[in-house]
Model the fold of this input.
Amino acid sequence: MPQTIISIQTRGPGLYEFTGEVEAFVAASGEGEGLLTLFVRHTSCSLLIQENADPDVRRDLDRFFKRLVPPSDDPSMAWISHRAEGPDDMPAHIKAALTQVSLSIPLSGGRLLLGTWQGLYLFEHRRHPHRREIVLHLGR
Done:
């Protein structure tokens, strides 16, 4: 069964689309039918299937999560104990816990069965740049 790891270099918080890399992996696999599993190997970022037509959707999602879980140096987050890696670390773990670290997408006719406006995103929750790894696995 085909499997690979792709890397995404982030520049800070936000959504990074990687649909094209996944489509290339699926095309190169030669598989026609199956299930693609994606798994991010980190605890402070997550994966999303989200609209890829209007960039306002990505901006609004980013703003929503910043309001929902502010940095730990915000007075509303005084209850946080884990602060060893900076004020964005524990909030990043919370955001990852509220979203997903793995996705499953059916494959038919050698193509991902994503909807018309759906794209695959890494959702970076940390302030600083990171190199993130995503495992792609095709199964039947």
The mean pLDDT is 96.
